[in-house]
């Protein structure tokens, strides 16, 4: 079992160090190898996704990533931007399913902008298709028609693309509360009429999972009004882009949210939902919990080791219950700690 470790830029190396300590403490005998991705890779090799990293990522069973990017590289030519590395590795590994949990631990209910009773205990998983839809459909462009500029894109999904992402959602729901809400806009868009038809067909393969459907405008509203009604939400690339950000912001604590991107064989790239936080990089104050919780997702989805995943999640719950907080989730009366001390506390709780 081989894991490719990519600390990346900014706070990446600091939060990754804690995640790796947690992983080692589990004693599961993983082989880990580090490589460069993002700005650090541009500095060292001229490429944000160098060949050595490509080889390692392809050979590994899973990839653990910190974060990439920072102002240092913002004015680089497009090919030498850190984000290119991120897009490159996702494409190279064929990662088509993005899983983003939005979990609000009861202890952090005040971090949300919504009323605590609406969000306390929230636990949603958004499953977003990553490689199709209007973001990649052809034809696309801006051209002059009848004497004025027109912009156009193509929303397109094949039934096999829809079916494989629906299966990821149903499989994930079987590890949770067995409810899938498929989000579309079938009243207006033929592409998503097909989405709904295929969702219904695929649902027949999973009689033990409850399937419901919701139009995307209503889904955006329901996420704010009554988010706890959802278990797993599954949708296309564009709707998922928007709804997953909305869902993560319900929690108010970006430093707590992990994510996974999976291929057809459950090989995955696991990373926190946040970026490289250049404003606090090198200060030892970043919250490592999103990265530590990404390790839990990796154990659950790639290595099918549910007990180890739950062990990490319970350790995180325990340190929150003990009142430990990094700056991003700090409230008066709590015990403010830095990155290393938070990692120490999770290890102790394990
Ligand atoms: P960001 O998520 O890095 O930071 C937003 C705010 O949240 C900042 O105030 C930051 O200090 C805080 N924050 C983020 N993670 C935190 C943590 N673990 N602990 C404590 N505080 C935390 O988003 P941004 O500022 O928009 O982007 C900064 C850089 O990160 C940019 O170069 C961007 O391109 C890149 N980025 C990378 C990824 C990725 O690697 N997947 C994702 C988003 C942004």
Q: Which architecture of the largest domain does the CATH hierarchy give at level 2?
A: 3-Layer(aba) Sandwich
Give the termini separation: 22 Å
Task: Give the DSSP E fraction (strand runs of 2 or more residues).
Answer: 15-25%
> Which strand order do you get reading across the main beta sheet?
2-1-3-12-11-4-5-10-8-9
Strand segment count: 14
Bound molecules: nicotinamide-adenine-dinucleotide
CATH superfamily of the largest domain: Isopropylmalate Dehydrogenase
Radius of gyration over C-alpha positions, nearest whole angstrom: 20 Å
Q: Which overall shape is indicated by the principal axes computed on the Cα atoms?
A: globular
Uncertain segments: none
What does this entry look like structurally?
With 350 residues, the chain is α/β, with parallel strands linked by helices. It has two domains: 1-96 and 263-350, 3-Layer(aba) Sandwich (Isopropylmalate Dehydrogenase); 106-256, Isopropylmalate Dehydrogenase, CATH 3.40.718. The protein is built from twelve helices and 14 strands. The strands form three sheets. Strands 2-1-3-12-11-4-5-10-8-9 form a ten-stranded mixed sheet, sandwiched between helices. It has a two-stranded antiparallel sheet with strand order 6-7. The longest helix has 16 residues, at 159-174. The two termini are 22 Å apart. The mean pLDDT is 95. The chain binds nicotinamide-adenine-dinucleotide (NAD). The site of nicotinamide-adenine-dinucleotide has 23 residues, from helix 4. Nicotinamide-adenine-dinucleotide is lined by residues 11, 15, 67-70, 83, 86, 254-255, 271, 274-280, 286-287, 290, 326, 328.
């Amino acid at each position: 079992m081989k894991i490719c470790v990519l600390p990346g830029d900014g706070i990446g190396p600091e939060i990754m160090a804690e995640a790796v300590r947690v992983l080692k403490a589990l004693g599961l005998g993983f082989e880990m190898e580090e490589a460069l991705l993002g700005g650090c890779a541009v500095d060292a090799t001229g490429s944000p996704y160098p060949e050595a990293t490509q080889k390692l990522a392809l050979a590994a069973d899973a990839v653990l990533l910190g974060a990439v990017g920072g102002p240092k590289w913002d004015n680089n030519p497009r090919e030498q931007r850190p984000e290119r590395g991120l897009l490159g590795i996702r494409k190279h590994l064929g990662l088509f399913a993005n899983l983003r949990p939005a979990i609000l631990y009861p202890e952090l209910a005040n971090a949300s902008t919504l009323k605590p009773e609406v969000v306390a205990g929230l636990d949603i998983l958004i499953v977003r298709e990553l490689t199709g839809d209007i973001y990649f459909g052809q034809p696309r462009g801006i051209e002059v028609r009848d004497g004025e500029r027109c912009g156009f894109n193509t929303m397109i999904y094949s039934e096999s693309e829809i079916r494989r992402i629906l299966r990821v959602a149903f499989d994930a729901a079987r590890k949770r509360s067995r409810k899938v809400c498929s989000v579309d806009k079938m009243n207006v868009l033929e592409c998503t009429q097909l989405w709904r038809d295929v969702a219904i067909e695929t649902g027949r393969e999973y009689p033990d999972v409850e399937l419901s459907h919701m139009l995307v405008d209503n889904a955006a509203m329901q996420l704010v009004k009554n988010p706890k009604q959802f278990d797993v939400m599954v949708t296309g690339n564009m709707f998922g882009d928007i709804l997953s950000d909305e869902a993560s912001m319900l929690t108010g604590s970006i430093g707590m949210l992990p994510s996974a991107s999976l291929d057809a064989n459950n090989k995955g790239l696991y990373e926190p939902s946040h970026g490289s936080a250049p404003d606090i990089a090198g200060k030892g104050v970043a919250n490592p919990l999103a990265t530590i919780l990404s390790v839990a997702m990796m154990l659950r989805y790639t290595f099918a080791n549910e007990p180890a995943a739950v062990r990490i999640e319970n350790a995180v719950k325990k340190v929150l219950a003990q009142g430990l907080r990094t700056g991003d989730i700090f409230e008066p009366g709590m015990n403010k700690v830095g990155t290393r001390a938070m990692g120490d506390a999770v290890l102790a709780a394990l």
